[in-house]
Amino acid sequence: MPIHSAIVHIALHTPSHSGVGDLLSYASPQPLPPGTLVRVPLGKREVLGVVWDAVDATGELPEGAAMRPIAGVLEGVAPLGQPWRRLVAFAARYYQRALGEVALAALPPQLRDLQPEQLARRLKRPGKAQDATENAIQKIALTTEQERARAQISSESGPFLLFGSTGSGKTEVYLRCVQEALEADPTAQALVMVPEINLTPQLEERFTTRFAPRFGSQAVVSLHSGMTNPQRLKSWLAAHSGAARIVLGTRMAVFASLPGLKIIVVDEEHDPSYKQQEGARYSARDLAIWRGREQGAKVLLGSATPSLETWHASRPPTPEDPEGGRYVRLAMPSRIGAGVGTDRGAGAPARVRRVDMNQQPRRAIFSAPLLAAITERVARGEQSMVLLNRRGYAPVLHCADCGWKSDCPHCSAHQVFHKADRTLRCHHCGYTVRVPRACPTCGSPDIHSMGRGTEQLEEQLSALLSEVLRPDRTPARIARIDADTTKAKGALEAQLAQVHAGEVDVLVGTQMIAKGHDFRRITLVAAVQPDGALFSSDFRAPERLFALLMQAAGRAGRDAAYMAAQAVHGSQCEMWVQSYHPKHPVYEALRTHDYPAFAAQQLQEREEAAMPPFAYQALVRADARSQEVAQGFLTAATAAAHAADLPGLEAITLFPPVPLTIQRVANVERAQMLMESPSRAALQRFLAAWQPVLQTTRSAPEHKGLVRWLVDVDPLVI
Ligand code: ADP
Ligand code: ZN
Ligand code: ZN
Q: Which residues of 440-479 are buried (b: 16+ CB within 10 A; e: fewer)?
């Protein structure tokens, strides 16, 4: 029998909610430092684990202890540092998930899957020669606003909110602050996050161009789910070893091992995609703030339309509120290239045009003035972008005789009509059928589509513009970009390239096209039907709509030099909104590009209603075979919480269970209950105490039909 000199407690991914404690103990022939990556037997498999803490060498194991030995250590990979382990432990605790699950999900998949020999080979692969030089980086002269922001970031500790419109030069400030951090310390590292994978190539190019000459071509790496597993492993190892100085990535990058981390940038911090929507439902932005404080790194959030949480947290001190918020707000109101004192200069913000749809013919999709404006632009050789947040041809088919609707048999939702392939498709479960020739219920041939999606918009626009010619006398070209046109790998890139090359005159699409893409020649953006969000039951819907419209408006006239060359000064860039409520405060604030006014109005409503950021929320969701079982589970767990008088309960409001807006998806009924508290700590205390109660409740026989349950802390969608 081998003699083991140490017991190690290891974090590994066990099936969640299995009731297995967070750490499992194994025997090791030698003591292992915390953070060491090991392979261990688990059941019949062998899995990756992380040594969490080591127990003193104890000589031989206690008599009769059946502790399994570890299978081996991953040689060549340094142990994960304490800051990383603390981050993972915090995330697991805060978002109510098992430590091992969060830890293992934070590591690149190949680290889990490769055998030690394969990994060793991978580690031996020579990197390209380091081509770093002592080249000084060419410095662009910052504007006064940029310089003021830079100086404050340099001298204060933050966290900072860089509040600046699209094109105000935020990225240039990020670049400069990252440069300062890296030059101050040869081991310093930077983490720069963006919301979308599609935005990383642009950013990567900008960072590489700037920093490769100084720090070497290996200095900048990306980390996001669009990469192949070998690429991800390579980037991860480069970050972990310190070879990479800058990591660019999406939300998952917040968990990168960065021993030298000195600065974190979260661009477009308001973007909902920073919130993970499965597993541990973490907010990468919030974790970035936590990580920055723990690891002594500066945190820089940037946005033209900050989340109301961040806006509130960065409020300046006032006589009534002498403390102010925890963050430092830095404003950069001017667009680069905007002529001083003019509002019609090339860099000026888009002019907002509202069309009162009450004054337009009924069922008009494109109001006459909007159509005229698009037509003019095509004729001048400029591009337009038309937004509608609904893909497909029409959201539902309908029988005029019996009232039949194309409902999905598996979900409480309509099947969407897709004309191109004549299908009805459920966007929730994917269930697809061919479009019937006649009503399936009464046989009437009189079936029609109701409402419209991007596919229909594209078709109608093509018809409406069929006579319109471009400056070179060729017909106008319409294209569409949405989830349907970009399914194939590389399709999005190819379509974007066409737009950039000027091959498209009018681009139709979902919000996918409104985000961040640098469309330089677009001078008109139109939201044809944005009203839905104004009256949504989701209290964050107006905030999201405002951000989307501001961002879309920012797409117009990105390239000051191009605009000047085209001499479009006379026809300023425009953002069009068609609405039945054109005087709504959201559109009023949009018209004046006045985010602060919009935020003030929204925050006042939130404060009066005691909603975030004036309260903290969490959700428990239950999925089951029936609504009754789903809600029954939540009701029983609530009763058990009250019976046990769990800590924190006194400061928390527990709302009764309700069905989700789309309550059935793929034949699973979904219910949730909301918890709200003015105290984040009380909510955390309660959730921690409630977790085991939920587990026990689940195993009661009357909740057998429960499929799963989950907790969402700081949920974005309620
Ligand atoms: P944002 O990130 O706020 O959208 P960027 O940093 O991308 O803004 O700047 C917008 C444009 O202005 C870019 O083309 C950028 O190269 C340019 N730019 C930024 N700062 C300066 C500056 N100080 N001088 C000249 N051009 C600048
Ligand atoms: Zn019918
Ligand atoms: Zn469905």
A: eeeeeeebebebbbbbbbbbebbebbeebebeeeeebbbb
